[in-house]
């Protein structure tokens, strides 16, 4: 059985003109082993924050045990605390409004089941090397400017 420790840092970025980017970096036992980033012309920060872990998990072999670090409480709280409630409520909020980015949440939920994941919020811009690297990649992603989701 592998005792490797995988740490995944994800981040999203957006600009006032609607451009956005996502980025992730995967570490194994403290060594960077994989990273990627991408962008979209017309998006929101929330969409990019969600896109980052989706893209990351799509890039990793299912079954891995990892800790995912995000500076987005929207993502961490959504996947750990709110997802089941949203599903039971047919993807609607307590105010009966549709959940934003439903398709990304559904994809993230399915991917979450394929791994053993501990979700962890980390304060952004606080000299955390993994989070700083993910932020740097998300900023690079703003410059890629695809009109799709980067696939």
What does this structure look like?
This protein is of the alpha/beta class. Helix content is 37%, strand content 26%. The chain is built from four helices and five strands. The chain has helices spanning 45-58, 73-88, 102-113, 129-142, and strands spanning 6-14, 20-28, 31-40, 65-70, 116-121. Strand 2 and strand 3 form a beta hairpin. The longest helix has 16 residues, at 73-88. The N and C termini lie far apart (33 Å). Mean pLDDT is 92; it is low at 147-151.
Number of helices in the DSSP assignment: 4
Largest sheet: 5 strands, mixed
Which residue ranges are poorly predicted, with pLDDT under 50 across at least 5 consecutive positions?
147-151
What is the succession of H and E elements? Answer: EEEHEHHEH
Helix content: 25-40%
Q: Calculate Rg over CA atoms.
A: 15 Å
Fraction of residues in β-strands: 25-35%
Cα separation of the termini: 33 Å
Concise structural overview:
With 151 residues, the chain is of the alpha/beta class.
Distinctive features:
151 residues, alpha/beta, five-stranded mixed sheet, 5 strands, 26% strand
Describe the secondary-structure layout:
Elements: E1 6-14, E2 20-28, E3 31-40, H1 45-58, E4 65-70, H2 73-88, H3 102-113, E5 116-121, H4 129-142
Parallel strand pairs: 1-4, 4-5
Antiparallel strand pairs: 1-2, 2-3
Helix pairs in contact: 1-3
